[in-house]
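During the reporting period the student researcher (J.K.) took over the structure-prediction task from the postdoctoral fellow and processed the backlog of single-chain submissions. One of the processed entries is reproduced below for the supervisory committee.
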Amino acid sequence: MKVAKKNIILTAMCGLLGLSVAKAQENRPEILRADLETAIRIALSENPSVKVADMEIRKREHARKGAYGALFPQIDVIGQYQRTLKRQTMYMDAEMTGSPVDLSKFTPEELKVMEVLGKIMPSADAGKGIRMGRRNLWNGTVNVNLPLVVPSLWKNIRMSRVDLEMAMEQSRSSKIDLTHQVKKAFYSVLLAKDSYDLFRETYTTDSLNLVNIRNKFTQGVAAEYDVITADVRLKSIIPNILQSESMVKIAELQLKMLMGIDSDTPVEIAGSLSDYEAGMFETIVPGDDALWANSDLKQFDLQTLQAENAHKISKLRNLPSLTSSFSYSLISQNNHFRIGHYRWDPYSVAGVTLSVPIFSGGQRYHDIKQSGIRLLQLQEQRRDLMRNLQLSVRNSTELINKSIEQVVAAASSVQQAKKGYEITQKRYETGAGTIVDLNTAALSVTGSELQYRNAIYDYLAAKADLEKTLGYDVDTVNRVQ
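J.K. obtained the following structure tokens:
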């Protein structure tokens, strides 16, 4: 019975433990496995800078449509109420025998006689004047304005199209820049991972060597110096492991930030630097004149087009403009607030306005001169930009070629170092070699492995810089061609 109870308890505990483990696995976040293409795709969809650039395109699109709206009639409805605090007084003069007469010179009796004779209008009291108007004034107006001939307005609409193209090119530039940063961050993660794996592998190999040397020392075959030397070498690898592990974490955090994902999201980076070695010799590097897709150059050309449009607008401001207008109003004047009894009187007017600029103190003239000088400045700046871009392409090309040569030399060095280590290890086992020779051979293997991986990283970094300058992926274009 006791055994049965123990079995039941153990079964229940195992069941609870299994449930807790399963629950923990359910709550564990899913690991994101990403290669270079996946990292770039996630970054282009989640990075805030790209989202802001896309919003800028939509904003410029609304601005372009708003510029077209200036060609349509502008209709405004205006409602107005005024309360008269003190009414206006009007004084009137009558005419006698065809000449104006000041009625204030006459006595009331004389004015009465002139009214009877028909010389002046009845009830004219020029001395006191006449108070006019009512207390409340209500006015409802519809105004319609339509530009007929406004040359600067038409050019401004064309300028809004260029602004939209500029926003689109800036968005493309932000994506190119982000792709460049993601590539270099991804390659940095691969370099840190490869270095970490190399040091761990070296630590494992040296650990086995230390065990063998200790066994030989126990058997009296090896000296104590050999044990101490092997132990010191093994411990000297630990700081490199810790440093490379820290570099992996830092590089992964940088990549996560560029991808626009949370830093706590577990990410597994796929691949290694050696995977890119085969493609190095298939890449066709373009010359320094292949700058047709460079984003900085395209943006500069768009800026030049904007400056040309601004220069033309400055000239068009000297031309006449013609606009039409129409206004319809309903007016009511009263002394009470019984709105249902108001009388509304209509008033409407239509007209055409011709505006001919004559003199503005030289403002328009100097605006034209300023915009003309701006065009000359842009021409000189474009020449300088072109030279800098060509120099950047040449520098990247030189680094790519140099890195390829270094990779070839480093790969051969790795093979020779491994072969030398094997020979040295056999010599040590047979007593023909020393522990110093073995450590030197091991260091040579580690150093050549690091040089090999650093050479591949330098190639990939230079290639990423070249693709950013050119504005396109070199490998993609080569495959299309």
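The committee noted the following: The longest strand covers residues 136-149.
J.K. will present the remaining backlog at the next meeting.
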